[in-house]
Amino acid sequence: MRILHVLDHSLPYFSGYSFRSQYILRAQRQLGLDVFAVTSPKHERFDKLVETIDGIEYHRTEWPTYSKVQGIPLAKQIATVAKLAKEVSRLGVEINADVIHAHSPSLCGLAAAKAARSLKLPMVYELRYYEEDAAVDRGKTQYNSMRYRLSQRLEQQALEQADAVVTISRALRGDLIGRRISPEKIFIVPNGVDIENFKPAEPDEELTVKYGLSNRIVIGFIGSFYFYEGLETLIEAAKILFVHRHDVKLLLVGEGEAETMLRQQIPEALRERFIFTGNVPHEEVRRYYSVMDVLVYPRRRSRLTELTTPLKPLEAMAMGKVVVASDVGGLRELLDDGNAGILVETDNAEALAEQLLRLAENERERQAMAKRGSEFVVNERSWSSIAVGYQSIYDHL
Length: 397
Known about the structure:
Blueprint: E1 2-7, H1 16-30, E2 34-39, E3 50-53, E4 56-60, H2 75-95, E5 99-103, H3 106-119, E6 123-127, H4 131-137, H5 146-161, E7 164-167, H6 170-178, E8 186-188, H7 205-210, E9 217-222, H8 231-244, E10 248-253, H9 259-264, E11 274-278, H10 285-290, E12 294-297, H11 303-307, H12 312-318, E13 322-326, H13 329-334, E14 342-344, H14 349-360, H15 363-380, H16 383-386, H17 388-396
Helix pairs in contact: 2-3, 3-5, 4-5, 8-14
């Protein structure tokens, strides 16, 4: 079976979206499927129109020309869908595809649906998140604004035109049913982790020396510093924790729009106990996990965080680390309702500090929780087992 995946963007851009895409394609190939990918014009810069990453062909779509229709509402979206649909149709014929599998956002789904109709092929649309909710949480639009409603309508069209819809969480499936998408065509393929790549390791000696982590309990975060991640709550919790424990440091790996705000929260006297590393290459991320004892994901409550599940907590659990997260829907589902990690009240720095203090003072509890998290990931969230779900969806179509 030959599957053509339609993606917004991909590696070598680093994002949770890119890594999930690569994990899916690699796992499907290991199952014996022939997989190919095409990225939308939003991928933007590329050196070659076709490049191979980890043995998988990625085809790039060039930007359409907007100059003659730039002032017309929806012109850019319409031109993007038309350009991408033409490329998907061309590739579908070239590789003799059996299934077109598009991944959100909606422009990918609409382009794939248009191409699939012309090729008389089934189309799967994978909804990972609602683009309109992500835009709200990043301050790019407001809930129920014209832009929000337009994005919502485009999403609805992509969902309705798909022969099957894949989503990543139970919460998203429930929301889709509320949008009148037939339950019979909705399938869940949750986020997973490459357990061969992410597994327990000894603390990296170079990083331990570089950041002065010897004989320290290290609380950490790895990811993008978006406002919806709620890292200001972690900063406040750490300030409370440091009053009680002088052997704790906070290690923040990544960067993003909230970084300036976060740095301004830290008193001069505590600066040396907060470590900002900046972005690190993906192949180095495991080294940073290795020096951490507890990973914290204090997301704010919003539609985005209630419905979607991130990748990073799964990586942390696979590495044998304790995960503490805010009690929002996406993280609650990811942590198996608190069986694989610790859930705390959202936006409550005092409650978070209390849990971190308890973990700092009880190594045995840290080890027991880390073991439960690791076992959950290995048994329930390894890509080698999750990818089998795609095979059954394709067979069904």
